[in-house]
């Protein structure tokens, strides 16, 4: 057994399961630090208040580029939408493992619960991500630990297996009781997954992937906004309201065109990596989605240098 306090690195999404995983370890006197990974589809907004509530340090890691590669070609495929959950979990755990080794944590822990999520938390999936992330033996799931093989931390007495739990399945009853017991009042309602699990969003992203196989994280940011049209090899995005119009203008990059109403209210069009040939189509779309107030309509064109 190490002489110092054992050190655990907990993947903290900010949901109740990950809060409880950290809490169970803290209750054993283990030193806990949290890590949260940012992709285009998840980030630290819920983890920050959770870490504050737990009184532990939170480290935020940007893995958008790594996630992009996973999304383009997931080894274990997609879930019901375009969500590559097994690969996504494995990626996050692999990164956590790198931090664990570099910064001398004893093990990594997560709030995963056996059988809670159909795609990513059945027994085979849990074994798979552990193996894929090079964490074999060093990944502790405190909420379901008693139903799983003992980890190195348990075998070496760094974590007391007796004080870990045997929760499985989709009922969240025991987690709610634990929240009550530990006086954890603030936690988000369980979410079904990131935007990639939503059918409409997945459809749009799939269209982008077909149209532009070398899409970037910036393209993924844009999928969330506006109406998307794919014309003659170009992508035109039309704002649906004032806020989206402003966001589109702010997200335009070099090589993009902004086409916008000058003397009437209507959508702003962003043409990605455009050329002048496509501007008439953007104008046509702007007029189609504008209110007709009878005035002669002027349209301004801005080229992003
Ligand atoms: S729901 Fe989204 S963020 Fe969560 S594991 Fe799946 S792909 Fe990753």
Name the average pLDDT: 93
Instruction: Strand order, main sheet: write it out.
Output: 3-2-1-4-5
Query: How many discrete domains?
Result: 2
Order of SSEs, N→C?
Answer: EHEHEHHEHEHHHHEEHEEHE
Q: What would CATH call the homologous superfamily of the largest domain?
A: HUPs
Structure write-up:
Strand 8 and strand 9 form a beta hairpin. This protein folds into two domains: 7-181, 3-Layer(aba) Sandwich (Rossmann fold), CATH 3.40.50.620; 225-303, no CATH class. Helix 4 (85-102) crosses helix 5. The strands form two sheets. It has a five-stranded parallel beta sheet with strand order 3-2-1-4-5, with helices on both faces. It has a five-stranded antiparallel beta sheet with strand order 6-7-9-8-10, sandwiched between helices. By secondary structure, the protein is of the alpha/beta class. Helix content is 36%, strand content 15%. The structure holds iron/sulfur cluster. Iron/sulfur cluster binds next to helix 4.
Write the layout of secondary structure elements.
Blueprint: E1 7-11, H1 16-27, E2 31-38, H2 47-54, E3 58-62, H3 64-72, H4 85-102, E4 107-109, H5 123-132, E5 139-140, H6 152-155, H7 173-181, H8 199-211, H9 217-223, E6 227-231, E7 234-238, H10 242-251, E8 257-261, E9 269-272, H11 279-288, E10 299-303
Parallel strand pairs: 1-2, 1-4, 2-3, 4-5
Antiparallel strand pairs: 6-7, 7-9, 8-9, 8-10
Helix pairs in contact: 4-5
Iron/sulfur cluster is lined by residues 41-42, 83-85, 88-89, 193-194, 196-197.
């Amino acid at each position: 057994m190490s002489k110092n306090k054992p050190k655990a690195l907990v993947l903290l999404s900010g949901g109740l399961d990950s809060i409880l995983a950290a809490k169970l370890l803290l209750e054993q006197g283990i030193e806990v630090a949290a890590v949260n990974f940012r992709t285009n589809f998840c980030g630290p907004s819920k983890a920050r208040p959770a870490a504050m509530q737990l009184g532990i340090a939170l480290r935020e890691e940007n893995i958008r580029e790594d996630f992009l590669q996973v999304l383009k070609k997931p080894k274990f495929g997609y879930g019901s939408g375009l969500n590559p959950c097994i690969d996504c979990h494995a990626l996050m755990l692999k990164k956590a493992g790198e931090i664990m080794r570099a910064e001398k944590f004893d093990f990594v822990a997560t709030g995963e619960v056996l059988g809670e999520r159909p795609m990513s938390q059945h027994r085979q999936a849990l074994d798979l991500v552990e193996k894929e992330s090079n964490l074999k033996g060093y990944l502790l799931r405190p909420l379901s630990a008693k139903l799983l093989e003992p980890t190195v931390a348990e075998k070496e007495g760094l974590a007391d297996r007796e004080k870990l739990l045997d929760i499985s399945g989709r009922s969240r009853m025991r987690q709610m009781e634990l929240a009550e017991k530990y006086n954890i009042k603030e936690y988000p309602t369980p979410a079904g997954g990131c935007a990639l699990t939503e059918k409409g969003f997945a459809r749009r992203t799939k269209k982008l992937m077909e149209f532009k196989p070398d899409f970037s994280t910036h393209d993924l940011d844009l999928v969330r906004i506006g109406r998307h049209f794919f014309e003659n090899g170009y992508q035109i995005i039309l704002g649906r309201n004032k806020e989206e119009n402003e966001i589109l203008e702010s997200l335009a990059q070099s090589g993009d065109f902004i086409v916008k109403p000058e003397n009437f209210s209507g959508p702003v069009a962003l043409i990605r990596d455009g050329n002048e040939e496509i501007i008439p189509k953007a104008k046509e779309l702007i007029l189609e989605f504008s209110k007709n107030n009878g005035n002669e309509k002027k349209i301004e064109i801005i080229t992003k240098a």
